[in-house]
Task: structure prediction
Amino acid sequence: MLYPAPTVVLDGLKFPEGPRWHDGRLWFSDMHARRVMTLDPDGQTSVICEVPNKPSGLGFLEDGRLLVVSMADHRLLVLDRDLGLREVADISPFVGGDANDMVTDALGRSYIGNFGFDFAGGEDFQATTLVRVDPNGQACVVAEDLAFPNGAVITPDGKTLIVAETFGRRLTAFTIAEDGGLSGRRTWADLGPATPDGICLDEEGATWIASPATRECLRVREGGEVLARVPMNEGRGAYACMLGGDDRRTLYICTSEGDEADRQAGRSRGWIEQVRVGVPGAGLP
Result:
């Protein structure tokens, strides 16, 4: 199925990433503006917090507190209502390059990806790790040899984690043990030319994938069959997506123009765009 190009619902951003539907609003990081924001269904925006070292992945604890990946200093932060942002864990010993997107499970355990190398500086590619941070701040490596682990999701039964390997052009799945460990590594989908960045799940078990290289969002079944496509507006790449709205059938897409050099120099422009789709969202985030 080919959907129409999405329509803009919010402009004036630098580089939106990490969208989450939570508490009736879209939450996202405007990475190069160094802030976390929300977008209400009526179009109103709020700045939730400033993150000087660039925010990326977002998550929520059972009590509603916001978790934020701070990229450049490799930290997981929590926004406490009275204390502001504070450190949950420093994952520097376990990562290479910037910390990146993540998914937080129902028990508050966060699975965090990272670049693996100095991407903006032009360093050669290096495989890297997926790190788990428990609510008490304890951190450990739960998977290795990943090709730029990026967006991640957890199935509604809490038993499977799927992570986008952007440079591997695939989705990789793991079985989640009761203690939060990962096993049973397997390829969930090979994606050919697509470069999966942010991802989200729907009720039929398919995954929506934002692919900046091919300037589209894809709906993919396990095994790699492409079920639907959403082409981006000319000149824009799709970097992350999330199913939200009252019925979870609105696909919100974080888009941007320009390249990494533009983003680092503050020249990038970004948008939140949307398109209505047929199957509601499910799982985490």
Notes: The two ends are 25 Å apart (CA to CA).
